[in-house]
Amino acid sequence: LKTVDGVIHLEDLPEGRYYVMETQAPVGYIKNTAKEYFDIRIEENGTQVKPVVNVRNYKASVELKKTDKNGNGLSGAVFSLLNSEGSVLRTNLSVNAQGVLKVNNLSPGTYELLETKAPTGYLLNRVGLVFTIPEMVEGAPKDFNLGNYMNYKGAARLYKTDAAKNPLQGAVFKVVDENGTTVQESLVSGADGRVHALNLSP
């Protein structure tokens, strides 16, 4: 049975209980596999009661949480949405103040979210997040949770040695940014001569 302007008329059904179930969704929508029950009954005067049954179709929404390595929400990131062929469908999808990105109105298919701008002070995460919207769901789909998508800060390591490449312990360093501002100090080389500078912004 096919809809005409979104409506199907069913005639001459005997009294009883029935259900309708969608077998093919409109283009771009998720197939609703829920069974919608209805009753056909005859009034005492012989009039047949014809109920109206609504079968809704939906598109999907996805949500991800932008975090640092400790799970804390990060705002300020921007994403693009690509289809399975790599064509850009949407740009400038911004993470909110709580570090959440929500993308609505998605048809069934495979997509990729690609970070185009990192939160301030963090490295760009160049690993695309691929996900699939299913072709069928029973009833209304809930938001699909894509989990956490992390950003990291950088790190640097150097070795303090003498001319013979022997490690030197106790040398003290500081890290200065491109504007001449000290961002870390009192970094001391260990017994192996190593100095680690962590949590560096780009």
Q: How would you explain this protein's 3D organization?
A:
With 202 residues, this protein is an all-beta fold. Helices cover 0% and strands 46% of the residues. It has no helices and 16 strands. It has strands at 16-20, 31-32, 36-42, 48-49, 60-67, 78-83, 88-94, 100-106, 109-117, 129-133, 136-137, 144-150, 154-159, 172-176, 182-188, 194-200. Strands 7-6-9-10 form a 4-stranded antiparallel sheet, with no helix packed on it. β6 (78-83) and β7 (88-94) form a beta hairpin. The relative contact order is 0.15. The mean pLDDT is 90.
Radius of gyration: 29 Å
Low-confidence stretches: none
Order of strands in the sheet with most strands: 7-6-9-10
Biggest sheet details: 4 strands, antiparallel
Overall geometric form: rod-shaped
Q: Tell me the helix content.
A: under 10%
Question: What letter string, H or E per element, gives the SSE order?
Answer: EEEEEEEEEEEEEEEE
Task: Outline the secondary-structure elements.
Layout: E1 16-20, E2 31-32, E3 36-42, E4 48-49, E5 60-67, E6 78-83, E7 88-94, E8 100-106, E9 109-117, E10 129-133, E11 136-137, E12 144-150, E13 154-159, E14 172-176, E15 182-188, E16 194-200
Parallel strand pairs: 2-11, 5-12
Antiparallel strand pairs: 1-3, 3-4, 5-8, 6-7, 6-9, 9-10, 13-16, 14-15
Task: Summarize it.
The protein has 202 residues and is mainly beta.
Task: List the main descriptive attributes of the protein structure presented here.
about 200 residues, mainly beta, 4-stranded antiparallel beta sheet, 3-stranded antiparallel beta sheet, about 0% helix, rod-shaped
